[in-house]
Amino acid sequence: MKKLIIGLTVGMLLGSSTVALAATNTVQATLTKFRVAINGVPKTGTSTQLLYKGTTYVPIRDLATMFNYTTNFDNNSKAISFTSADNSNDAWITLYDFQAANDYLTVQQQQGIPNAYEVLSGGATLFKVNGTEMKDGEYGAVTDNKNKQIKIEKVLGAIYLNKQDLKDAGYRVK
């Protein structure tokens, strides 16, 4: 009888430790949908994103599609490969990417005015962009100091410039 009680006690201890270990493998996360814009172009994912401890997790195939890549999974080697699609149709550029493409330019926010910027070269103003009154998805235009018109768009609160208009005005774009 003593052996039976010892056996049951050991069995219960082992069983309860297994349950305790299983409980530590659970996580609490939130499923959500975020607005995404890539190079000023709003993108829509096909899946819901997972938000866990302040970090957003997006399914890799969905994210690759948003960035205009195709994905391939090789089950034998457990490898994921990405292939870039042609991105030549990107018609818009952010102000800061525009500045990076033209190292002689400076883009600065106009003091105290949200979404209002001044593009400078050597201290001289080339053009000003004011998207304060613009709503997301709205288009506008600015004129540079050479009377060249440049279309602008506001997407998710950010201002984008039309690449072709910038090229026509003599600026570089990437």
Written description of the protein model:
- With 174 residues, this protein is of the alpha+beta class.
- It is 24% helix and 38% strand.
- It is built from four helices and 14 strands.
- The strands form five sheets. A four-stranded antiparallel beta sheet has the order 8-14-13-12.
- Mean pLDDT is 81; it is low at 16-20.
List keywords for this structure.
174 residues, alpha+beta, 4 helices, elongated
Q: TL;DR of this structure?
A:
Helix content is 24%, strand content 38%.
* Major sheet characteristics: 4 strands, antiparallel
Radius of gyration: 27 Å
Low-confidence stretches: 16-20
Side by side, the strands of the main sheet go: 8-14-13-12
- Gross morphology is elongated
How far is it from the N-terminal to the C-terminal residue, by CA? Answer: 83 Å
Helix share of residues? 10-25%
- Strand percentage, roughly? 35-45%
Mean pLDDT: 81
How many alpha or pi helices? 4
Extended strand count: 14
Chain-wise SSE layout:
Blueprint: H1 2-23, E1 30-32, E2 36-38, E3 41-43, E4 49-52, E5 55-57, H2 60-66, E6 69-74, E7 79-84, E8 92-94, H3 95-101, E9 105-109, E10 116-121, E11 124-130, E12 139-143, E13 149-155, E14 158-162, H4 163-168
Antiparallel strand pairs: 1-4, 2-3, 4-5, 6-7, 8-14, 9-10, 10-11, 12-13, 13-14
